[in-house]
Specification:
With 416 residues, the chain is an alpha/beta fold. The protein contains 17 helices and 13 strands. 43% of the residues lie in helices and 14% in strands. β4, α4 and β5 form a beta-alpha-beta unit. α4 crosses α5. The longest helix has 18 residues.
Length: 416
């Protein structure tokens, strides 16, 4: 079975991570190809992904003619002759929808939708246009995978009408994201990052973006700093080391307590330096960051966006989104109610952290997510699945004493 992945997002973000996890966990019998629209510049997939899939780049960031973009994509899809065309990211969905009627007859179109922003929350006119057109094109989609129930319900209300759909939650590799070996290792990581060994750290992982609301986080951090000057704040993700982010830190006079790391390739190690994790988003689908952080055995605080009741679960650690329904002081008080008990008690952090790792291991494993995606592939293309997997290859060899035509051998093989 051949799957062509049309990638219209950032390879360092959550969508890119999910695609890469899917490829890394893909069993034998599946052939993968990536066409990167390179919406934000050069394709940046790591070397291990290049060994899992052939990758080509269409440089949409340089090609501004819409008709030419669609023509280039149409040619790439027709050349691939894939059994399934899977779109990733808003732009991947949009452009595959534009050419859906020109797909090869045998190709099935699959979308993965993660955005939890409603039409009212979408401020940019261009994004509103894309969202509305995507709704109209959904009739031509064979299958939609939604990242959460919230995302499915929102898009159903918008008028999405694919042939079939399901919800598959994100998963995390708990062998990769795990607690540090010992306290000495944690101190070494903190020292390398310029964090005092005695400091308590609160980390916010994610790109610098209005929707991620680093501004609100820093407003709360400034309040905590007045009573707990030993707390340091760690930021990692795209543009978290930008001049704009630095200016925001200076605005709240937190230069001595803030660590702006930018994009990191060693996130499991960075998580090990954190005592508390935090996600401050105004809207989310079903974020990877809380699960990655919780898998490393730390407590996590999250806004009400993105169904935190499934991951964070503890009501005292789920805070309101900063959507204007509360005054700034009221919202800061809500954050302090979550942060201060954790900052003040190492025992509480340990207790919640252990419970969090156990919860992620049990309910949100990477194997479950990758298995879910491949189950959809097999549903869309059962003949491709049969061709890819020779059923006889799954049968065990006969025990040596058994003759192939003996009654015992026939009874043995019948079980499979």
């Amino acid at each position: 079975m051949k799957i062509l992945h049309i990638f219209g997002a950032n390879s360092t973000g959550g969508v890119g991570q999910t695609l890469m996890n899917t490829l890394r966990g893909s069993p034998d019998g599946y052939e993968h190809e990536i066409v990167d629209l390179a919406w934000r510049g050069q394709s940046t997939f790591p070397s291990d992904i290049k060994s899992k899939a052939s990758i080509s780049c269409l440089d949409f960031n340089l090609c501004l003619d819409e008709d030419l973009r669609q023509q280039l994509l149409k040619q790439a899809v027709q050349k691939s002759k894939a059994d399934i065309v899977q779109a990733w990211g808003r732009n991947g969905n949009y452009y595959t929808g534009k050419i859906a009627k020109d797909l090869p007859q045998k190709s099935k179109l699959l979308w993965w939708i993660t955005s939890a922003r409603s039409l009212e929350q979408t401020q940019e006119d261009e994004m509103k246009k894309i969202l509305l057109e995507t709704v109209e094109m959904s009739d031509d989609v064979d299958y939609v995978i939604y990242a959460s129930d919230e995302v499915r319900d929102l898009h159903t209300k918008l008028g999405f009408n694919p042939v079939s759909s399901s919800v598959i939650y994100n998963g995390v590799d708990t062998q990769k994201f795990k607690p540090a070996e010992n306290e000495q290792a944690v101190r070494a990581i903190k020292s390398n990052l310029g964090i005092p060994a005695s400091a308590i750290t609160i980390g916010m992982i994610g790109r610098f973006d209005k929707n991620k609301d680093q501004a609100g986080f820093l407003m709360a951090a400034s309040s905590l700093n007045k009573t707990h000057p030993n707390v340091h704040f760690v930021f990692a993700g795209q543009k978290t080391d930008s001049p704009e982010m630095q200016s925001l830190v200076e605005q709240y006079n937190l230069q001595q307590n803030s660590h702006l790391l930018g994009v990191r390739s060693d996130m499991p190690r960075i998580y090990s330096a954190l005592d508390i994790g935090h996600l401050n988003s105004l809207s989310e689908a079903f974020a990877n960051v809380p699960m990655e952080a919780m898998a490393t055995q730390m407590p996590f605080v999250q806004t009400a966006a993105g169904m935190p009741e499934l991951t964070v679960r503890r009501s005292e650690l789920i805070i309101p989104t900063r959507d204007g329904s509360l005054s700034n002081n009221e919202w800061i008080n809500a954050v302090m109610g979550a942060w201060k008990p954790l900052v003040n008690s190492a025992e509480l952090r340990t207790e919640i952290g252990r419970d969090n790792r156990s919860h992620i291991q049990k309910n949100f494993s990477l194997q479950t997510q990758v298995g879910g995606f491949h189950s959809v592939y097999n549903k869309l293309c059962p003949l491709g699945y049969v061709k890819a997997f020779n059923p006889s290859a799954l049968r065990p060899k006969l025990p040596a004493p058994m003759r192939k035509d003996s009654p015992a051998a026939k009874a043995y093989m019948f079980r499979f």
